[in-house]
Write a structure and sequence with these properties.
MetI-like_sf; about 250 residues; single chain; MetI-like fold; mainly alpha
């Protein structure tokens, strides 16, 4: 590691290319913390989106029409508006109005941190996409399979839980993987409300050293590496859940 740091420092003195994050220990630690925050945002966003999307998918199947309409309105709103606008609306709009993101009159701290607002925004936005993906997966299960489940004595919800949803989830996995990849990349919008993830930390570094080009390359490579690891995980899950006859 010392040799690598010395190499990058020598590169800076020789060419002017300042990858300070690789030879300055304090900045390296700070950037590593930013990567950790980005990964944490992605994991919590993935969990929230899957939980919310699955819940909405089930609620769309209930017989109470107003509840179905409410879920449909949520899905359409969050699928058709920009993620950054949603984050601003939650943080500066709802958060400020209900004093969730601002200090109280007596100096009380905010109820929710900026990081929590980003997690909520990611969960709401991509939960809407998960709901649509799972709905399409359920509709893609052959009618004969549903009839076979009923013939075996399963009720409506029993057939859904034990037969239809496992098949629908498997069929939806490629689309879910793509949606999850979007969540990982969308963590960068946390920069907009000063959450110290990778892009925000890189901005702080290039503001001090004026090495914008170098740090932007580092950020892009960082996200490429995260996405590469994530893609490997999704492919492994697809292998585990492979069902003969349903394609790969």
């Amino acid at each position: 590691m010392d040799l690598l740091a010395q190499s990058f420092e020598a590169l800076y003195h020789r060419t002017g290319w300042n990858f300070s994050v690789f030879y300055n220990a304090w900045e390296a630690r700070k950037y590593a913390d930013g990567i950790y925050v980005a990964i944490e945002l992605a994991l919590w966003g993935l969990f929230g989106a899957m939980l919310l999307g699955t819940l909405c998918c089930f609620l769309r199947l209930v017989r109470f029409a107003p509840l179905r309409w409410l879920v449909t309105a949520y899905v359409e709103f969050f699928r058709n508006t920009p993620g950054l606008a949603q984050l601003y609306f939650l943080f500066f709009g709802i958060g400020s109005y209900f004093r969730l993101s601002s200090y109280g009159p007596n100096g009380e701290g905010p109820v929710l941190s900026p990081m929590q607002f980003v997690i909520i925004a990611l969960s709401l936005q991509y939960g809407a996409f998960v709901a649509e993906i799972l709905r399409a997966g359920i509709e893609g299960v052959p009618k004969t399979t549903k009839e076979a489940a009923e013939a075996l004595g399963y009720g409506r919800w029993g057939a859904l839980y034990h037969v239809i949803m496992p098949l629908a989830f498997r069929a939806s996995l490629p689309a879910l993987g793509n949606n999850m990849a979007q969540i990982v990349k969308s963590t960068a919008m946390a920069y907009a409300i000063a959450v110290p993830e990778a892009l925000y930390v890189a901005h702080e570094i290039w503001t001090e050293h004026f090495n914008v080009i170098e740090m932007m390359n580092v950020v892009l490579i960082t996200y490429l590496a995260i996405m590469w690891v994530f893609t490997l995980i999704v492919r492994q899950i697809e292998r585990w859940l492979y069902v003969p006859g349903m394609g790969r």
